[in-house]
Write a structure and sequence with these properties.
The two termini are about 25 Å apart. The chain has one domain: Hypothetical Protein Ychn, Chain: A, CATH 3.40.1260. α1 (about 15-30) runs parallel beside α2 (about 65-75). It contains 4 helices and 5 strands. It is globular. It has helices at about 15-30, 65-75, 85-90, 105-110, and strands at about 5-10, 35-40, 80, 100-105, 120. The chain is of the alpha/beta class. Helix content is about 35%, strand content about 20%.
């Protein structure tokens, strides 16, 4: 069984619920002692932009998105952000939150090629 886990998040502004649930699951994976990566692509890249997560709060029973992201990073989760998706949206790397790293698709492929399970929101 793999000791790694990937949560692919493709939504943020277009579907805030999916973004929130994605980070809930990512935190749960960390709590299960899995090395966990949140890979943000397409609309999901907005979750890694400074000031954007603060705008999203689904309400009970979910914590605000910023709180979920902060907890994820503080507990060792890695946020990988699709570099071409950032460029398409004219988002620069200096706009990313602490703990988020812009990467190409090859980084995700390398992580998944080791048998890492992945879910998408």
């Amino acid at each position: 069984m793999s000791n790694t886990f990937c949560v692919s998040i493709t939504n943020c502004h277009k579907n805030t619920d999916k973004c929130t649930v994605g980070f809930v699951v990512a935190n749960a994976a960390l709590g299960s002692d899995k090395e966990t990566v949140a890979f943000l692509s397409t609309d999901g890249v907005w979750a890694a932009v400074k000031g954007e997560a603060e705008k999203i709060n689904e309400g009970e029973p979910f914590a605000p998105l910023k709180e979920l992201i902060d907890k994820f990073v503080e507990n060792g989760g890695k946020i990988l952000v699709c570099s071409p998706c950032l460029k398409k949206r004219k988002i620069t790397e200096d706009q990313l939150i602490k703990g988020a790293t812009a990467v190409g698709g090859a980084t995700l492929v390398e992580f998944l090629s080791k048998g890492t399970p992945c879910v998408t929101y």
